[in-house]
Amino acid sequence: MKRNDLPERWADKLKSYICEKLGEDRQELTATDFRFNLKINFEDGSFAFFQYAFYILDQDNNEVAIFTEHCGYHIFPLYGTKLELLESKWTDVGTG
Fold this sequence. Notes:
Helices cover 14% and strands 35% of the residues. It has 96 residues and is mostly beta strands. Strand 3 (63-68) and strand 4 form a beta hairpin.
């Protein structure tokens, strides 16, 4: 889904995230907001992997929203879902 398709409860949470977590007074996301790689593992053993993404948890509604730069926004049930933040560390070994 795209930003305009977000349920209202998530649009409000996204606005709060931008202000509180990113410390900026704006309504829209920018490319620099999508700074993580995320692996989402589901209880049935399947998984999804997103580059240039971040997530927001909603414990009250038992949901997690994944926001990606190029693959849209996704809402998953929190129960049985595990999130893994992945960080690439590059070295120059073997390039010389």
